Amino acid sequence: MTDQPLVTISIPTYNLGNYLEKTLNSVFKQTYQNFEIILVDDASTDRTAETIAAFAKQDDRIRPFYFENHEGVSKARNYAIDHAKGDIIVFVDGDDLLDPKYLEVMVTGLADPKVDLMIVGFSWGWRGGYDREQNPQYETVTKRRAYDSINYRGDNIGGYTWNKGFRMSIIRDNRIRFDESIDLAEDLLFTADYMLASHRFLLYEAPLYNKVNRSNSIIHSATYQMRAKEQVVRRHIDEMGMDLTV
Asked: I need a labelling partner for 13 at 20 to 30 A (CA). Which of 55, 77, 81, 105 fits?
């Protein structure tokens, strides 16, 4: 499959010793196998680093890197962007699970050079994959529709980065980065910047990404200051899209 596009999978980790193995196993079960994994450990204090090292010994598609100090998820993802060899990049959280067709659907959708962003459905909590008898289809989504979903909680598109496939050429040409100064909504801002620089979007609604609910995640442990800053970011995203007409 070396003649097919290489996909870079960015996986940041921080104290995910009880989850990471399942996440990586779901990656290796993909029907599309031409990928690399940039696995950045953000100075974990549990056995996460050991899990990464063990998997890296088994498969040279894993490119591990270990931060000496805790830097945050945005810096870990920016490291992946800076070192990606792939044409496409996906951002997977190190405690979540992928349906076996996740990468295949991403690559198929982005096979059309006119498509800038590929979006798949997701679920909260493992439900054993989707019903393939439903025969999901690729559908075009307008830029306005996609952008408006960023700040709408519960939307099947959303501003999340983990249910989307991005073109590295667009990221590089427009110098799109994760804002390392914020702890929440950094993915929403990244997605907003990318959508504003893009034109055509495809949606495949089958839930190919499974979000695992972890009680000690930053979403559940965020401080009042983090939440207040998140609201500033969300307002900024709305303002950025005010002149969007398509």
From this structure: 105
CB 168 within 8 A of CB 83: no
pLDDT band at 134 (very low <50, low <70, confident <90, very high): low
How many whole angstroms separate alpha carbon 209 and alpha carbon 23? Answer: 11
Give me the amino acid identity at 199. Answer: H
Band (232; pLDDT cuts 50, 70, 90): confident
Cα separation of 200 and 214, whole Å? 34
Q: How many residues make up the chain in this entry?
A: 246
pLDDT digits (tens, 9 = 90+) for 201-231: 999 999 999 999 755 555 545 665 766 778 8
Query: What is the rounded distance in angstroms from the CA atom of residue 64 to the CA atom of residue 62?
Result: 6
**DSSP output for 93-121:** -TT-EE-TTHHHHHHHHTTSTT--EEEEE
Give the global pTM.
0.91
CA atoms within 13 Å, Cβ hemisphere of 227 = 6
Q: What is the mean pLDDT of residues 109-137?
A: 80
Residue with tokens 């993802």: 77
Residue appearing with tokens 């307008």: 142
Spatial CA neighbour of 188 closest among 167, 219, 217: 219
Contact predicate 101/178, CB 8 Å: no
Task: Kindly tell me the sign of the dihedral angle through the C-alpha atoms of 120, 140, 111, 169.
Answer: negative
- Token pair listed for 246: 């398509």
